[in-house]
């Protein structure tokens, strides 16, 4: 079992992100996506600090080096402050299923970024895999568009999903660099990531004069419970498992297994959000995930 710790952690990440996206979608519809992201980062940070204290005897990794601070800090700002702002807006505009499907573009962005900036070669099979993934996603989006959602909201939701996916790819690259520095524990890295993300998103709220308004949203009991559930599955357990996954297995395998939420969310979205799930959507989702897997199988 220990041999497959990374793979199991990646599968656990998919389950956590699926449930977390549902909780956050419910909360975003009640009080707004930006407010939910601000509040859940603080809740997730408290969860992580408590766990870090239980495991390591301190609430914060004071043994972190400058390299750890830099890479995990950058990862937190890109992934949580910027990327998740787009992600939560996507939940609100097009729902968790389509948003998470667009997040499956993350390993593709990672491949393209490596080819562009690190001069890594792009194999023909990888080009084919990218095309397959884009085909699958296009099938799902076209099928959804036929239902007649509002043009502007639908387009903005797609853009938010794409931007969130790009930020996740950049964030994972930075996290991987941080984890490789002196064999740093995954949970310690996640504490730094979430802390940086929380600090920066609340600094922005302060500049915009929205701190009091955001705190005022805590009076909504249903939203509070949804944020609590989402924070537990998302920035707490889910992101922790994702770092364990990329620490103990190949980042390509981890990314592929962590790209499964769109499949997991098909029955959940149908039952909870009454989405009309067609055969075309199911086939397109499977094609998209297959394309992601193809990138890393060869």
SSE blueprint:
Elements: H1 5-31, H2 33-56, H3 66-103, H4 106-117, H5 124-145, H6 151-179, H7 186-207, H8 211-216, H9 221-248, H10 251-257, H11 261-272, H12 279-297
Helix pairs in contact: 1-2, 1-3, 1-9, 1-10, 1-11, 2-3, 2-7, 2-9, 3-6, 3-7, 3-11, 4-6, 5-12, 7-9, 9-10, 10-12
SS-derived structural category:
mainly alpha
From N to C, what is the helix and strand string? Answer: HHHHHHHHHHHH
First and last CA, distance: 24 Å
Distinct helical segment count: 12
From the spread of the alpha carbons, the general shape counts as globular
Poorly predicted ranges (pLDDT <50, ≥5 residues)? Answer: none
Q: Report the sheet-strand fraction.
A: under 5%
Give a written overview of the molecule.
The chain has 298 residues and is mostly helical. It is 83% helix and 0% strand. The protein has twelve helices and no strands. It has helices at residues 5-31, 33-56, 66-103, 106-117, 124-145, 151-179, 186-207, 211-216, 221-248, 251-257, 261-272, 279-297. Helix 3 crosses helix 7 (186-207), helix 7 crosses helix 9 (221-248) and helix 9 runs antiparallel to helix 10 (251-257). The chain is globular. The mean pLDDT is 88.
Main traits of this protein?
298 residues; mainly alpha
Summary of the model, kept short:
This protein is an all-alpha fold. Helices cover 83% and strands 0% of the residues.
């Amino acid at each position: 079992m220990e041999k497959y710790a990374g793979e199991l952690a990646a599968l656990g990440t998919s389950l956590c992100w699926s449930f977390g996206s549902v909780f956050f979608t419910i909360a975003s519809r009640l009080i707004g996506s930006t407010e939910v992201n601000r509040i859940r980062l603080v809740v997730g940070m408290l969860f992580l600090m408590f766990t870090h204290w239980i495991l390591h005897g301190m609430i914060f990794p004071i043994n972190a080096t400058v390299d750890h601070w830099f890479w995990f800090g950058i990862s937190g700002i890109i992934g949580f402050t910027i990327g998740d702002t787009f992600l939560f807006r996507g939940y609100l505009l097009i729902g968790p299923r389509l948003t998470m499907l667009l997040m499956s573009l993350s390993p593709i962005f990672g491949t393209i970024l490596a080819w562009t900036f690190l001069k890594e070669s792009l194999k023909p099979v990888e080009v084919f895999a990218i095309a397959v993934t884009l085909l699958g996603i296009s099938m799902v989006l076209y099928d959804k568009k036929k239902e007649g959602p509002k043009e502007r909201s639908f387009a903005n939701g797609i853009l938010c999903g794409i931007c969130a996916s790009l930020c996740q790819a950049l964030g994972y690259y930075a996290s991987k660099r941080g984890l490789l520095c002196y064999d740093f524990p995954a949970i310690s890295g996640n504490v730094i990531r979430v802390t940086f993300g929380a600090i920066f998103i609340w600094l922005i709220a302060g500049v915009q004069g929205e701190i009091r308004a955001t705190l005022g949203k805590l009076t909504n009991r249903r939203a509070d419970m949804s944020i609590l559930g989402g924070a537990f599955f998302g920035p707490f357990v889910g992101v922790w498992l994702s770092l364990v996954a990329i620490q103990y297995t190949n980042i390509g395998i981890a990314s592929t297994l962590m790209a499964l939420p769109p499949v997991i969310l098909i029955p959940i979205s149908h039952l909870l959000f009454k989405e009309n799930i067609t055969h075309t959507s199911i086939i397109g989702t499977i094609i998209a995930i297959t394309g992601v897997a193809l990138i890393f199988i060869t």
